[in-house]
Amino acid sequence: MIILGLTGSIGMGKSTTARMFAEEGVPVHDSDAAVHKLYEGEAAAGIDRLYPGTVVEGVVDRTKLGARVIGNAEALKKLEEYIHPRVRADADAFVKRHEEAGTALVVLDIPLLFETGGTDRVDRIAVVSAPAEVQRQRVLSRDGMTEEKFAAILSKQVPDEEKRRRADYVIDSSRGLDHARKQVREIVQELSQI
């Protein structure tokens, strides 16, 4: 089985690209979705202990949590140390299920693949990328996003140029959905022949 790591900096179109892999029939483990699930379940109590007042009716309030950790390196590190092993365990279980089922190709959608040392978990790496100005427009159009939050998030991420350099595949998300979908199909076709 080939494990393709899919990553990209904030606003690059990674989530949309992950859906394209799923539409091609490739099983995708979405780390962000795993975090959401954990925030709504088993991780909520632990996060409430770490950051009192960030859990409302048993569910982590991402806005309140973000206000506590974004721009606070120590608080963010504590959160990552708590949540990342749980997300990794969920991804490992996903991979095991598909290995046992004889699946040929799976995608691990990992936003912080390089930042968390996750490259050893995958066989190939695809980076979703777009020009900096496109990224900036996409991110700043999000509800609640500010220049300061954007800068804080970028400061925690490996620069796009380095991600592209270290990738086996670069998917350009700035040239429209059809172009990105064509790139995804080509990657699936190539990896399915290995």
From TrEMBL:
Subcellular location: Cytoplasm
Pathway: Cofactor biosynthesis; coenzyme A biosynthesis; CoA from (R)-pantothenate: step 5/5
EC nos: 2.7.1.24
Gene3D superfamilies hit by this protein: P-loop containing nucleotide triphosphate hydrolases
A GO molecular-function descriptor: dephospho-CoA kinase activity
InterPro entries in alphabetical order: Depp_CoAkinase, P-loop_NTPase
UniProt enzyme class: transferase
Highest taxon of the lineage: Bacteria
Primary location: cytoplasm
One cellular component term from this protein's GO annotations in UniProt: cytoplasm
Residues that bind ATP: 11-16
GO biological process, alphabetically ordered: coenzyme A biosynthetic process
UniProt entry keywords in alphabetical sequence: ATP-binding, Coenzyme A biosynthesis, Cytoplasm, Kinase, Nucleotide-binding, Transferase
UniProt record similarity statement: Belongs to the CoaE family.
Reported function: Catalyzes the phosphorylation of the 3'-hydroxyl group of dephosphocoenzyme A to form coenzyme A.
The protein's name: Dephospho-CoA kinase
Source organism (scientific name): Nitratireductor basaltis
Gene expressing this chain: coaE
